User: Fold this.
Amino acid sequence: MLKINRKLSVYISIVLTAVMFAGLIVLAVFMPFILEYLLKIPGLFGDVAVLSQYKRVIFYTAAYAELAIMMAGLGLLFALLMLVQRRKVFTAAAVELIRYISWCLIFMGIIMIALTSFSVIALIIGAAVLFLGLTVRVVKNVIEEAVYLKEENDLTV
Amino acid sequence: MIIINLDVMMAKRKMSLGELSDKVGITLANLSVLKNNKAKAVRFSTLDAICEALDCGVSDIIEYRKE
Assistant:
């Protein structure tokens, strides 16, 4: 199996984060077109003709809120990767970042679930994202414990 | 609370931190952590080496004081 060294791996993650951030900016610009296209797919979001202006506003708001939260999450990921690069990942700062990332995921999941009235797919995706958020939260607990152990080890003479 | 009296013993033996670090075989940084009461734990091997280097007992270095 291809073995990638640690530094290169972090570098790849940073590049992927930056690429995804750029992708989100492009997505934000073309969002109205994409949303209108999605709304026209028969059956995906119910009958378009029935979709009231009020519901349309909710749909757009949710889409942009998801995008904003994802961008914030990517910023947090970037900060976390910087900590990894500086070999300071087992610190209280990193734990805090991971905690915020988990909240980002949980909020995204909640927004998705709130869109269930539009489409059942939203419920499934929302539940998956919520589960991811919970997983990240547990990872945060694990890292927190590791920080404690590291501190104790560092201060053992 | 546990008080480390390493500096007192070092003064008595007229030994510098660098000299003690050489004799004990732990880094200057770690010895400073111990001397400044910042350590969370001390290995028996470290304690053994310090007592050997300073020619003293454990109670000369470590003391318990009621808070």
Residues 2-64 of chain B form a domain with the 434 Repressor (Amino-terminal Domain) fold (CATH 1.10.260.40). The radius of gyration of chain B is 11 Å.
